[in-house]
Write a structure and sequence with these properties.
- The chain has 285 residues and is of the alpha/beta class.
- Strands 3-2-1-4-5-7-6 form a seven-stranded mixed beta sheet, with helices on both faces.
- The radius of gyration is 18 Å and the shape is globular.
- It is 44% helix and 16% strand.
- Helix 8 links the parallel strand 4 and strand 5.
- The chain has a single domain, classed as Vaccinia Virus protein VP39 (Rossmann fold, 3-Layer(aba) Sandwich).
- The chain binds S-adenosylmethionine.
- S-adenosylmethionine binds next to strand 1, helix 5 and strand 2.
Length: 285
């Protein structure tokens, strides 16, 4: 297990920890900083200002430095031309990874965020960081946004995808990407929060063999929306929000071969968590 530097810890996560005005407060905090002119155009300084707020003011549900480094190293290795993130919040991962994608020679980073207010915060901070040439913020539910980007021809392939949104949607969105052939051999997935709060159905899916996935697909298992292991209330709420029947019943592509491993790390508060790194290595016919 790696070491966590307690000096860098974010404020503790409260009972209500987002969507209570702190996202707009963060914007005021950053734009009122005395060194705002030096922050402009510097992704590193924008990230440092966000971290400072998270440490000295209020908790923010960002991927943080430790897990962020795991994904940045992956970006340097994979050198994605196109990277997609599901769940942008206030733009921390988007600025960190969008900058890494640009440095690695990549062209496009799509940040998919459902909440329009959060989307506006991301856009403001991406602009401040000078990354608006690479990063495109897409507001809407991830499944609808993936479908729309695909239909419009703006998204043809996903080289690297960061999953960090609604936990039951990790598997359904991955299956949609498989079905649209956005995820193919060569694609890499990095899924956050697989320890805290955990995501057993997603881990089971990406760690399954082709034979296991085919068997499940034939029996119709897993086609009726999110897995019951997330609890009835969550599953029902998610199902209610999904308007598109096709997306709900997406079978994915069980023939894709995945190699998957957990990388242990920490939340920015110091709570242990992990990122599941999954590489699509082939397709069985
Ligand atoms: C944990 S936060 C993302 C943190 C961000 N990736 C970071 O590390 O800086 C999860 C975000 O996912 C968004 N979200 C939840 N469900 C979504 C969905 N179906 N489509 C798009 N965004 C969603 C939430 O509004 C929230 O902003």
């Amino acid at each position: 297990m790696p070491h966590f530097d307690q000096k860098k810890a974010y404020a503790e996560q409260e009972e209500v920890f987002f969507d209570d005005g702190r996202e707009i407060e963060l914007l005021h905090y950053i734009y009122n900083k005395p060194d705002i002119d030096e922050i402009r155009g510097s992704p590193e300084r924008v990230l440092a200002a966000i971290d400072e707020y998270g440490r000295t003011k209020k908790y923010l549900m960002n991927v943080g430095e430790d897990k962020g480094k795991i994904v940045c190293d992956l970006i340097a290795e994979v050198k994605p031309e196109t990277m997609v993130e599901l769940g942008g919040y206030i733009g921390y991962s988007c600025i960190l990874f969008g900058n890494a994608v640009r440095k690695a020679g990549g062209k496009r980073y799509f940040s998919l965020e459902r909440n329009p207010e959060f989307g506006a915060v991301i856009s403001s901070l991406v602009d401040l960081a000078g990354l608006d040439d690479v990063i495109k913020v897409v507001v809407g539910s991830s499944d609808a946004s993936i479908q729309r980007l695909y239909d419009s021809g703006k998204l043809k392939h996903i080289d690297l995808m960061f999953l960090d949104h609604y936990k039951p949607a990790y598997t359904t969105d991955l299956k949609l990407c498989e079905e649209l052939k956005l995820v193919t051999p060569g694609s890499v997935l990095a899924a956050d929060n697989v320890i805290k709060p955990g995501n057993p159905p997603y881990l089971e899916y990406v760690r399954s063999t082709v034979a296991e996935k085919r068997k499940k697909a034939e029996s119709g298992d897993g086609e009726n929306g999110p897995d019951a292991r997330f609890g009835d209330r969550t599953a029902k709420q998610y199902a209610k929000r999904q308007g598109d029947e096709k997306l709900k019943t997406s079978k994915g592509n069980p023939n894709l071969v995945y190699e998957s491993k957990l990388v242990n790390s920490y939340e920015p508060t110091g709570v242990p968590d992990g990122v599941e790194i999954t590489r699509c290595t082939g397709e069985e016919t």
